[in-house]
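Example 3.2
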Amino acid sequence: MLDQVIAPNAKLVHITGTVQSKAEWLQQIRLGRMHYFSSHEVLFQVVVKGKQAQVVMRNELDARIYGFRNTWPLQSKVELVKGPHGWQIIASHASMY
């Protein structure tokens, strides 16, 4: 499903500042280097302007990232565009709040 909702050329910035392509990020998940257990939503805001949208989310994310499991206070700012097959993520910037 992630492969479908993320655009092929999406730019994904992680809390470390590391920029990854969609393919690199999905590979990290497949290899188990990033494993997501659960998420508790704290904030979810969406602004839609025509065929573009911006989403700001805050979640308490239970995840194991590169061997370290923690509950991360994660904020994600996500940009989407609406194409012929629906909405796709074109950029995501994650940080801790």
